């Protein structure tokens, strides 16, 4: 069996179809359930919000609910069933079992396929985990066969598009046509991280369910459900993840809390230069095959700079420490609004420098050391 993850799964986390409970989005679920029970169920739903907050999990929950729940007009021998009060479907339900096995005939999932220009290359690359950067119209064409089949037991058919942001122009036009002329008893669920980038005509034909960033308790509950231990660092992890379970999973998998603690420890030595700590961070960037951890390090540097800027602007460090001793370090190096502005400018300059360096394939270790020298220079003028 292949260990390659599909393009809609975060490494280290279960696939959305394997996630039984959704935490922190009761309002969105209630809005959908109200629309369902009112008999005014829209055929197109745009599920929006930051990455990693549970949009795909909600889409799969809705799909499971719709396919497993008989339409209200199918009264049956004993009349219409009572209106459902929850979208929960028992794990033993045939639809739940088929969806878990990725074999539900009433569901079509549109996502990125393998990279390449020929069918053979695409199939080979998909098996190797090399996916296209966009959803092409070729991935959308099988929907024609899907819709030509009769609905299972006269029930609904559901299409999940994850993510709609990835649709290329031709694929987007194919989805628009479906939204304009939806097949009977069909619901389209579009997952979108940046809905403003979608075609206005697609947005206007969907009802939006917006999912906000998750509070710390919801993130901890979601991680516990996925059997991911925070080792007592749940609050710090939630702080760095910015309300995203997906980001929290990546932080855990790539030891993000440890990386951030090392950054703060280095910052604590400034304006002096600590060669050992600086070299340790440079080694992280230089590790062969460590692209994901290097990208995380760059993200954490940007996050640290923004927390410094916010501390200077507000006159107080963040309420939740993301690393031991962080509050004291931030307060010392960003004691005023002027210092906050300097760190905000540094965030912009350093971020641009790191992105440029990566684009032209500069030595990653040298880039990180250069960043450390820049931080040292700014700290020397701010730690008074």
CATH class of the largest domain: Alpha Beta
Please tell me the CATH architecture of the largest domain by its name: 3-Layer(aba) Sandwich
Q: How many helical stretches?
A: 17
Helix content class: 40-55%
Morphology: elongated
| Strand and helix order | HEHHEHHHEHEHEHHHHHHHHH
The proportion of residues in beta strands is: 5-15%
Strand line-up across the major sheet: 2-3-4-1-5
Biggest sheet descriptor: 5 strands, parallel
Overall pLDDT: 91
| End-to-end CA span | 60 Å
What fold name stands as the CATH topology of the largest domain?
A: Rossmann fold
Spell out the key features of this protein:
single chain, about 375 residues, alpha/beta, 2 domains, five-stranded parallel beta sheet, 17 helices
Characterise this structure.
This protein is an alpha/beta fold and 384 residues long. It has 2 domains: 16-210, P-loop containing nucleotide triphosphate hydrolases (Rossmann fold); 254-382. Helix content is 51%, strand content 7%. Strands 2-3-4-1-5 form a 5-stranded parallel β-sheet, sandwiched between helices. Strand 3 (157-162), helix 7 (169-180) and strand 4 (186-192) form a beta-alpha-beta unit. The longest helix is centred in the last third of the chain and has 24 residues, at 291-314.
């Amino acid at each position: 069996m292949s260990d390659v993850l599909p393009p809609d799964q975060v490494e280290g986390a279960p696939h959305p179809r394997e996630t039984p409970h959704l935490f922190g989005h009761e309002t969105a679920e209630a809005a959908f359930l109200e629309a369902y029970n009112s008999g005014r169920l829209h055929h197109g739903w745009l599920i929006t919000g930051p990455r990693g907050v549970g949009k795909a999990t909600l889409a799969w929950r809705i799909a499971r609910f719709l396919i497993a729940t008989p339409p209200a007009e199918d009264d049956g021998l004993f009349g219409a069933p009572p209106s459902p009060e929850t979208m929960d479907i028992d794990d033993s339900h045939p639809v739940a079992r088929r969806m878990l096995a990725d074999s539900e005939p009433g569901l079509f999932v549109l996502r990125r396929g393998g990279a390449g220009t020929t069918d053979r290359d695409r199939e080979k690359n998909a098996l190797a985990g090399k996916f296209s950067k966009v959803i092409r119209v070729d991935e959308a064409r099988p929907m024609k066969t899907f819709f030509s089949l009769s609905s299972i037991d006269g029930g609904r058919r559901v299409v999940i598009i994850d993510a709609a942001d990835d649709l290329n122009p031709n694929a987007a036009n194919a989805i628009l046509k479906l939204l304009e002329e939806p097949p009977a008893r069909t619901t389209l669920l579009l997952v979108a991280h940046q809905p403003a980038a979608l075609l206005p005509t697609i947005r206007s034909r969907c009802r939006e369910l917006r999912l906000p960033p998750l509070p710390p308790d919801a993130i901890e509950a979601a991680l516990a459900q996925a059997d991911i231990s925070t080792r007592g660092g749940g609050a710090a992890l939630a702080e760095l993840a910015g309300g995203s379970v997906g980001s929290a999973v990546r932080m855990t998998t790539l030891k993000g809390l440890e990386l951030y603690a090392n950054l703060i420890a280095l910052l604590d030595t400034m304006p002096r230069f600590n060669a050992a700590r600086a070299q340790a961070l440079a080694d992280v960037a230089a590790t062969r095959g460590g692209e994901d951890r290097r990208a995380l390090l760059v993200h954490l540097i940007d996050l640290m700079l923004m927390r410094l800027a916010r501390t200077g602007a507000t006159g107080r460090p963040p309420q939740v420490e993301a690393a031991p001793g962080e509050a004291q370090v931030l307060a010392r190096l960003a004691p005023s609004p002027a210092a906050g502005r300097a760190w905000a400018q540094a965030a912009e300059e350093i971020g641009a420098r790191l992105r440029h360096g990566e684009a032209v394939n500069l030595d990653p270790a040298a880039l990180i050391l250069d960043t450390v020298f820049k931080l040292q220079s700014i700290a020397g003028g701010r730690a008074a």
